[in-house]
Amino acid sequence: MVGVTLIEPRRFADERGWFTEVYSERAFAERGITVRFVQDNHSLSVSVGTVRGLHFQTPPHGQAKLVRCIRGRVFDVAVDVRRGSPTLGRWVGAELSADNGRQLYVPIGFAHGFMTLEPNTEITYKVSDVYSPAEDGGVRWDDPAIGIEWPTLPGVTPTLSPKDERLPSLGEFDSPFDYDGIPLSPL
Fold first, then answer.
1. Boundaries of domain holding 69
2. pLDDT < 50: residue spans in the chain
């Protein structure tokens, strides 16, 4: 079992372009990522400054995620929301882009979200459980108690869904996620 992990798949390039293996059950298991992914999701965010998150699914349908950007760029974050965790409320973030090919593995017990840095940005992500509306949840993207250092985009006001605008702060959230002994580490 591992915590939030930044993955940089190797690209094999030549004059035609490049090839990469974005997911291999065996290779990921060698890194300690042994969850079974059951669904792939794909989102398009048209505007720069679109914020999606901070989302999670609670037990019994918690979701681990493997996130990658296939067009454009995002600032992608994970926030520890596990009760009893010494890193509760702390976050890590990384730029994911079509150019850099990075992926972020986000285990169950972490809220996930991103902000688009380019127009028409597309994200794909694998999840370890199907969508369950009854367990769908999240916390505020701009909660000062978390203090995410989102990129500053001159002249851009972040765009959120009405649902995301109503999410509670971390202090208002009674977490059903238990600490598993793996604190959040820098990426």
1. 5-9+23-172
2. none
